[in-house]
Amino acid sequence: MNARTPYLQIASSGVHGLGVFATQDLPEATLLGTYQGRRFSPEQLSRRRWDDSLTYLFSLSNGDTIDGSRGGNATRHINHSCAPNCEAVEEWDARGRLVLRIYALRPLCAGEEVFLDYGLIVDESYDATDYRCFCGAVSCRGSMVAPAGTSA
Ligand SMILES: [Zn+2]
Q: The Post-SET domain covers which part of the protein (predicted)?
């Protein structure tokens, strides 16, 4: 287990496959971890062929993409919810690199599953059934894709 995500624990989820759960009660705005993995520039990304690892890709606003399936930590298993209790925030780290940090949007209880709204930005030709959401929230959009008119 990655030492930098002490508040997170991976276990099977009621929503989808594996999920991530709070190990203890946590106050709002707690830093839960940094989304880690192999980094690709837009140029490197276009040269690669992607298969089923797509669900672990996180795109940053500077064009870089982080592939959590390679060298990632517990944060890559965080499931999507249309009513999330966490958010992913882009910040500059001490080395001047743009990173993605996961913060609690509200107080979390020990054992509570942690969710992000992926708000995926996808190609116009995407197949909506690939991104169907089953989070069960009252406000569920039925899709993990960002609502029209928003941008990450
Ligand atoms: Zn949903």
A: 129-145
Q: 48 C-alpha to center of ligand 1: Å?
A: 30
CB proximity list for 38: less than 8 A, separation 6 or greater:
66, 67, 70, 71
Q: How far is the CA of 55 from the centre of ligand 1 (A)?
A: 16
Q: Is residue 132 part of a domain?
A: no
Q: Higher confidence at residue 61 or residue 110?
A: 110
Distance 119 CA to ligand 1 centre (A): 10
Distance 71 CA to ligand 1 centre (A): 28
70: DSSP letter: T
Amino acid, single-letter form, for residue 116:
L
135 C-alpha vs ligand 1 centroid, how far in Å?
4
In tens, the pLDDT along 36-60 reads 999 999 888 888 776 654 568 888 9
More confident residue, 50 or 67: 67
What CATH code is carried by the domain that includes residue 40? 2.170.270.10
What is the distance in A from the centroid of ligand 1 to the CA of 81?
Answer: 5
Separation between Cα atoms, residue 67 and residue 52, nearest integer Å? 12
Q: Tell me: the pLDDT tens digits for 18-31?
A: 999 999 999 999 99
